[in-house]
Design a protein that fits this description.
single chain, about 140 residues, alpha+beta, three-stranded antiparallel β-sheet, 4 helices
Length: about 140
């Protein structure tokens, strides 16, 4: 069950000022240990410790591969890759790593059963509460 809270756009410069939107609410974050424990409770012969070891190695290998310029696809989850945040240069000769590359990002794109279309079809939603009190118009 996905929970959401309503919030009002209070940016007076926005054309959508005063409009209401929903934001997903996350109540808990699972680290590798909690995920491994959760997975071990799904009728598997593997202990939480074994699963955590495999997941730890998975994380290290995904990092290694994306930093080597490769995409890593975990079927029915996401495709992971690196992206760059850059500023423009007037010409290719004037483009420098130190001057124009501002950062590196980790990108993920949903794939397979976790695609945006499938999420929309399968998700159940419930209002969690609002971020603020609705103001009278």
């Amino acid at each position: 069950m996905l929970r959401y809270k309503l919030y009002q756009n209070n940016n007076q410069k926005s054309t959508q000022y005063g409009k209401w939107y929903a934001r997903a609410v996350c109540e808990e974050t699972f680290n590798l240990e909690a995920l491994a424990k959760h997975m071990s409770e799904h009728n598997t012969p593997f202990s939480a410790g074994v699963i955590k070891g495999v997941l730890t190695d998975l994380v290290a290998c995904v990092k290694e591969l994306v930093l080597d310029g490769k995409n890593v696809k975990l079927d029915d989850l996401a495709i992971f890759s690196c992206g760059l945040r850059t500023t423009p240069a007037d010409s290719s000769d004037k483009f420098t790593i130190s001057g124009n590359i501002k950062g590196i990002t980790l990108r993920s794109r949903a794939t397979g059963n976790l695609s945006t279309t499938n999420l929309k079809l399968e998700a159940q939603l419930k209002e969690y509460g609002t971020y603020g009190v609705e103001q009278a118009s």
